[in-house]
Design goal:
Blueprint lengths: L10 H5 L2 H19 L10 E5 L3 E7 L8 E6 L2 E8 L17 E8 L10 E5 L2 E7 L15
């Protein structure tokens, strides 16, 4: 049986000649490193943030965390989410793979306006933290009546 090395058929890589092979090798090595490192996921939760006329709405991915392991604070126009992820691997266990991030995190998000801090609501369902931040009265749109003079 004869083994032959496959030629790089990617036109972009072929355009770089011998450097194309080097770029491809480097890309494969980086992929291998990313799959083996324990820092494959971001330390801070990924979020979606949007607003409507009355409030800001935020969703954060926090799989495996409980409300007790999370702290949410609002000061002025800044929302801060902090918490701690703890993994079950201890000194008494053998851990075969550690791909999830462990340890403390803190993420601060500056909002476009101040919110009513006493009316902020948070809930946690299926690993998604949902926060509703009602806008302050000064930030709400107002209809101004035009008077005839």
């Amino acid at each position: 049986m004869v083994l032959t090395r496959a030629r790089n058929t990617d036109p972009l890589m072929a355009a770089f000649g011998p450097f194309g092979r080097l770029i491809g090798d480097l890309d494969r090595e980086l992929d291998a490193m990313r799959s083996q490192t324990r820092y494959a996921a971001p330390a801070s939760p990924l979020i979606n943030l949007w607003e409507d006329d009355r409030a800001f709405h935020l969703e954060a991915e926090v799989p495996g965390l409980t409300m007790e392991s999370l702290e949410i604070t609002v000061e002025g126009d800044e929302l801060t989410i902090s918490g701690k992820r703890e993994l079950p691997c201890t000194a008494d266990t053998v851990c075969h793979r550690r791909e999830r991030i462990e340890g403390a995190f803190k993420r601060s998000i500056r909002l476009a306006t101040q919110v009513k801090t006493d009316e902020v609501e948070a809930s946690l369902k299926n690993g998604v933290l949902a926060i509703t931040l009602p806008k302050s009265e000064q930030a709400l749109p107002r209809r101004i009546e035009v008077k005839a003079v």
